[in-house]
């Protein structure tokens, strides 16, 4: 099966002003990655230390390391990889598609 996934930016803006002195024009959503996979694949889990790829994506918005980690696992447990574009308008939408099959029907 194929699914279309929409990420909708719902940035509240003013709620974080006390903590975030950045101008809203400088805030972006990084590219996002998702994978359809079997129950044997775990991108992350509560209590685990994040991989270098996850850490780089969270801290710098750089998805390349995580994409490399996913490619290593792909042959075994992953059906497809979906990547969105960056959102420079934090209230915009981005759409991607993901494919699943009988064995790899979970999405992370």
Give a verbal description of the structure.
By secondary structure, the protein is α+β, with helices and mostly antiparallel strands. Helices cover 21% and strands 25% of the residues. It has 2 helices and 5 strands. The protein has helices at 52-60, 64-77; strands spanning 2-8, 33-37, 78-83, 93-99, 106-107. It has a 3-stranded antiparallel beta sheet with strand order 3-2-5, with helices on one face. A two-stranded antiparallel sheet has the order 1-4. Helix 1 (52-60) packs antiparallel against helix 2. The protein is globular and about 40 Å long. The protein starts with a strand and ends with a strand. The mean pLDDT is 82.
Structural descriptors:
108 residues; alpha+beta; three-stranded antiparallel sheet; two-stranded antiparallel sheet; 21% helix; 25% strand; globular
């Amino acid at each position: 099966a194929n699914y279309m996934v929409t990420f909708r930016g719902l940035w509240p803006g003013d709620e974080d002003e006390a903590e975030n002195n950045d101008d809203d024009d400088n805030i972006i959503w990084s590219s996002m990655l998702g994978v359809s996979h079997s129950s044997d694949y775990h991108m992350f889990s509560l209590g685990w230390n994040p991989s270098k790829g996850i850490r780089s994506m969270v801290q710098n918005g750089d998805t390349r390391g995580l994409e490399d980690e996913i490619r290593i696992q792909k042959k075994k447990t992953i059906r497809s990889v979906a990547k969105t574009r960056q959102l420079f308008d934090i209230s915009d939408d981005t759409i991607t598609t993901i494919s699943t099959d009988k064995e790899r029907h979970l999405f992370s």
